[in-house]
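Lab notebook, bench 4. We co-purified these components, and the gel suggests they stay together. Before we commit to crystallization screens, I want a quick structural picture of the whole thing.
Request: model the full complex, all chains together.
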Amino acid sequence: MPHPLERRVLFRHVDEPGYTPDLDCYLRNGGYETLKKAVTRAPADLIEEVKKSGLRGRGGAGFPTGVKWSLVDRKSGKPIYLIVNCDESEPGTFKDRYLVHQDPHQLIEGIMITCFANNVKQAYIYIRGEFPHGARILEKAIAEARAKNFVGPNILGTGYSCEIYVHRGAGAYICGEETGLIESIEGKRPYPRIKPPFFPAVLGLYQCPTIVNNVETLCHVRHIVEMGGEAYAKVGTPNNSGTRLIGVSGLVQRPGYYEIESGKITLGQLLHDICGGPLPGRTFKAIIPGGSSAKILRWGETFKIKQKDGSTVEWSVADIPMDFDSFAACGTMGGSGGVIVMDDSVSMVEALANVIAFYAHESCGQCTPCREGSQWIKKITARMVHGEARTEDAPLLKSIADQICGRTVCPMGESSAWPTQSYVAKFQDEFTQYEQIKKTRPAGAPKLI
Amino acid sequence: MNLKPATLSRIDEVITHYPVKRSAVLPLLHLIQEEQGYLSKDAIEWVATKLELAPINVLEVATFYPMFRMEPVGRRHIKVCRTLSCALRGGYQICAEFEKQFGIHRGQTTPDGEVTLDFVECLASCGSGPVVMINDDLHEHVDAARAVALADQIKAEAKARN
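Here is the predicted assembly.
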């Protein structure tokens, strides 16, 4: 049963007894009715609905979806592609897994509405290689939808045709970055492309205009067109409309996946009321709010936030509303909705060593600051953990991170730099006195490296 | 290269999904690895010929992506998630338990070729960690007892086969 503080829209059938991922079940629950209506409307109207809804992309950046669609070059005469980003690889993020495995037709309906609105004739779903069952479920669902004429030639007798193919990745995090993903579909190493000039809306897949949207974003599109953009905009809070899928993991009583109205509950309500608070005998220490590349929040720090009326309020970490703008105001990001919880048993040096081992492994190697910098941070933190911490390590780590930021083709440089900068700045003591603090940790501390 | 007729027909079909043949590199490598267990030098050259590419264009892709293997692995490939959320819940201990159960270190294969054990990065099931993938199947909330049970099952199946 969903928690009373939740509002399930995309997840309304997830874990529902008797709900199956096949077409018949979806049709019994009103499936594809929205698509049937959508194809009778003018495509420009559908784009307008999405603009009115205020929907912001759920992959991490929070860019307005309607604006993204309106940037597409429609004068070039080239085909327009849609790529569905189902690479779901930011550590802490595990929402799309359930949308794909349990309700694949919701996604396909969202894809087809988006394709019709944008005159897309070919869509690719880029699904991470580690979801082999998910890829089969999607292929089966597409075949079922094609048999009922929701996908393929002359959709529902409109004369409009569109095909969807599933394209499997093979374990590389960088393919979640949209231009790296495009290179991957082109059959190459997924080295991200530099912007400008390679904005996907103009020069994307095969140098054609391309829309890259996250799985969750496209599922929202289906509900926006059903409800109407204005009605959807009333869900959540202004500029942060709609619901959000949140994944909570780490050291909390009830980790799991939840759906909330954006900005309507706080991080404290999420962690205490929905997730049941810290493990017995432990206290919260640090929270990553939006995937492991987000800057960390230290439990106990406060933020002075200027409000629209000019007054200032003070927020604790627990007071932060769960939305893009509030996390940004606190110097971090809501990102992909992946909340990772650490308690007083965790050493922040070891946590950073774990996180940076991921980014060092996943750096594509194209840009020197990211490739070398992430390896240096990995080596320094590993050395610290193995009993050779030095007094200059904290400033050294900060210096390396500062030299990565802003000097790479894609935002993966920041994915190494932001954790490093924020862990060192907010937990300076742990980095300068690692050996002493290590001795004071409670029993049962997890091994992180 | 001796590929099954079913694999060959899937290969021909998947190439039609793309306006540019080169895009079929990843799908072809997946299909061949699924049948043969790894990607041999012959496989790389076969894909290159099939897609009218230089072999290096295929090799550079095969060696970039962690899921493609240039060497055979065990019949069971155990992949333990190493990344933060699973580690906070005991991922390292689970990997150590599998090492103990099979008498190998991570990165190794048992001498009988039954089991390969690896640490892998985030499997996107962070809320149910620690998680382990064994071939295509995900196992959630794997504690030490569950790791022992999974290992026992693998050992029993291997014994039944031999």
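The mean pLDDT of chain A is 97. Worth comparing against the SEC data before the next meeting. Chain A has three domains: 23-234, 239-340, 348-438.
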